[in-house]
Every structure is written in C-alpha cells, then in structure tokens.
Amino acid sequence: MKVFDFDNTIYKGESTFDFALYVVKRKKSLIRYLPAFLWLLFTYKVARMDAKTYQKKLDKYAKQFLTNKDFILECVQGFWEENIDRLYPHMLKMIHEADVIITTCPDFLINEIRDIIPTDHILSTQTDLEKGRILFLNFHENKVKAYHKYYANQKIENFYTDSQNDKPLMAISKNVFLVKNGVVKRFSK
Question: Which numeric CATH code is attached to 2-187?
Fold first, then answer.
C-alpha cells in the first residue's frame, strides 16, 4: 500500500493556509486573526507543538473562521475552482484505489475534490461546521493514530511526503519518498 501526504505533496502549497487567505479576502473582518494563524502555521511547519496543544490553539481560531457553514462551503467551492490546477497531475496518477491520503487538511476542504482523487481512503482533520470546531486534528503523531485506527493490519510499503513533520509515519513505512516542488526522491531513514 502507498500512503500520501496531501499538502506540498499532491497539492502545491498548504491548502488550509491558502483557503484561510481565500476566506479572509471575502470576509475582511477575519483579517485580525491572520497573524495568529500565521504563527500557528509556522509552529506547525517546524513541529514545535504536540498535536493536542496545536488543536487547542487552532480550535480557538476555527470558531471565528467556521461560524457560517453556508459561507464556508461556498468558499470551498470557489477556492477549488481557482486552485484545482495546484494539484500535481503526476502525483494523482501515482495514487491507486487502495492507497491512502493522510492529511492535516480539514475534511470539508478535501471532500470537495474527492471525485478527482483516485482513492476514497482519505484521512483528514475532522471538523464540525455546525459548531465551528475541530474534532480531531490529523497532525504529526495523530496521523499514525488515525492510520492504525482504520488500517491496523496493513503495512505502508511507500510513503510520500514533503516534510520531516511526518516522522511518525516515516517510522512505520518501509520506503519513504520526499516530494519537493513536485519532484519525488527516495529518502533514507
């Protein structure tokens, strides 16, 4: 089985960050939360926080961003209309029906493009748009927890990621490949 990270692996960039900017452009009053969100993104990229702490801090801002479900879902559709070309076609071709995508990207964002992704096996951050909450942040060690919950007996033959943040998944994978700017290179563990 192959397992793929999403951001900077299949999608060129950080989809959640790009989506937050998209939302702020449409609802200017949210700009006041952008500096804190940028700081959280930085700490995420350098893995300076455990998943539980990160979720707690992120949930505070999620309540501000996710207060209007209809607006968010409208933004999701518009976001993908503008950003679908940021999916790496050659990476999508590598994904088969039995493969898994495991991502920090929120469910409401990645679910919009499920018909383009060649697998239904997608583990993402779980949200409740009715309450504006993050239920499960699929980040760092939580990615391994999610993987084991759904695929406990299946070994990861090949894992594709852009980041050392995925060390917990790297540790349980036979082969690891780093993806930088769409270029795939074998990584020695």
Answer: 3.40.50.1000
